[in-house]
Design a protein that fits this description.
It is a single chain. The chain is mainly beta. The longest helix is centred in the C-terminal third of the chain and has 7 residues.
Length: about 110
């Protein structure tokens, strides 16, 4: 058994936007790890955009992820592989690097429109 504990974490900051590039406030933003790591629940993160549509996530393990923001979602739905699979192409790829902050703009996903 090998346990590795690292302190070299990263962060993501960004904004949730509509297709018209308008900010979307008070929206859940989900960070989902790459498919090979989706059984690792510790790699999933969520936050909410603020009143100006901005969000921040800190203390993230380095790696490749996708960011998702939906206009209407049941809490925890992003943990279901079948649910994520339907929206995979709409996720925003982001790479978290050690000791740095990635910046990303996330398009809001309208649940009624695929």
């Amino acid at each position: 058994l090998e346990v590795v504990i690292g302190t070299d974490v990263g962060a993501i900051s960004g904004a949730v936007l509509t297709d018209a590039r308008e900010a979307v406030p008070n929206t859940i933003v989900a960070l989902v790890p790459e498919p090979a790591l989706r059984l690792r629940m510790d790699l999933y993160r969520t936050t909410a955009s603020d009143a100006s549509g901005r969000f921040n996530m800190r203390g993230l393990a380095p790696g490749d992820y996708k960011l998702f923001a939906w206009d209407d979602i049941v809490t925890g739905a992003w943990l279901d592989p079948e649910f994520i699979q339907q929206w995979e192409a709409r996720g925003t790829p982001v790479r978290v690097r050690e000791n740095s902050t990635a910046n990303s703009q996330v398009a809001i996903i309208k649940v009624g429109a695929r």
